[in-house]
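Q: Hand in one record:
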Amino acid sequence: MFKNIFVKILESKGISAYKLSKDTGITQGMISYWKKGERMPSAENLVTLADYFSCSVDYLLGRTDNPEINR
């Protein structure tokens, strides 16, 4: 589920693996694993991605269809 959501967000926002890597410090290799569905991000990286994309961790994990952050 994460893989599909992650790829969808990258495409919808027009963000390349290079840009995401540069902006977050997450390696392009790790991003490639996620895009292929070969690995899942750590809790720390999930929080980094949620902050970067301004969405909730639950949305990234497919636990909700609502990308809004509960604040």
User: Anything to note?
Assistant: The helical segments are 2-13, 17-24, 28-36, 43-53, 57-60. The chain has five helices and no strands.
